[in-house]
Amino acid sequence: MTPPIPRRNEPGSPPGEVSTSKWTPEQIAEHLSGSEAKMKKAENKGTYVLVDDGSRNKKPKVTPDMAEYLKLRAQGYSRAYIAIEWGLKETNLTAYWIRKWGIGTKELEHAAIKKYKESKGQAEQTPSVNVESPPAASDKSASSDEIEWFIPGAKPVAACVGIIRDGLSISRTALKLISDVKPDHMSVGLCADGLILKLSPAGMKLATGKAGGAQINSRALARWIESKKIKAQRYEALRHAPGELLIKVEYE
User: Fold this and answer.
1) Is the distance from CB of 224 to CB of 216 less than 8 angstroms?
2) In which residue ranges is the amino acid composition biased (Polar residues) (predicted)?
3) Where are the domains of the chain?
4) What are 61-114's pLDDT values in tens digits?
5) Residue 226 CA neighbour count, 13 Å, CB half
6) Are 79 and 93 in contact (CB under 8 A)?
7) How far is it, in rounded angstroms, from Cα 116 to Cα 196?
8) Which of 146, 178, 156 is nearest to 246 (CA)?
9) Which residues 6+ apart lie within 8 Å of 202 measured at CB?
């Protein structure tokens, strides 16, 4: 806690008690570094964070240079870091100089940084930070016949059943495999071939699902499926017998 501020003594009143306290180096570091969440977020973005601890007043002010600014930004330094290094306030750097250079928006700034990197042949290396490097991309481009393109609004052709958080999701096409009329109740079992879904008045009640499908909303069922080490994903549903569906599942 911050030491209390002593009150000014009123005439005729006894002097007030003044208490002092000392901060440990850990408390000072925590105070200067800000919240842990903020630091972690900045670290994940690959930027440098420098908290103004009064060092700005000790640094001589320099005339901001756009090329030097883009160089530092290309290396991963934040605006706050550059402002402190230049002995400026961050608001002065962003509200005046960056706008003066014509890169006031993020889009314009990113475009300028990209152009700077290209002009330098990407010679500027980003400083190492404690973040996991993304996997290297393969040089071999995928051929057109190996790409499965997503089509907005397209519906799956095959009948399918999905294992979801609260139970099962059954597509409309899967329901039509076992009944011309939308069923009300269904039982779920497990055999050597996979899951069996069977129409049964004594089974679990079906709720309305997406796109004309149905759902079995049961956390108890979801826990039972999880206990069987069945992967939670969407599976193709096959007609097994009259009024029954077979879902060949995968196990963890």
Assistant:
1) no
2) 122-131
3) 25-119, 160-247
4) 678 899 899 989 888 888 888 888 888 888 888 888 988 898 988 888 889 988
5) 10
6) yes
7) 61
8) 178
9) 185, 187
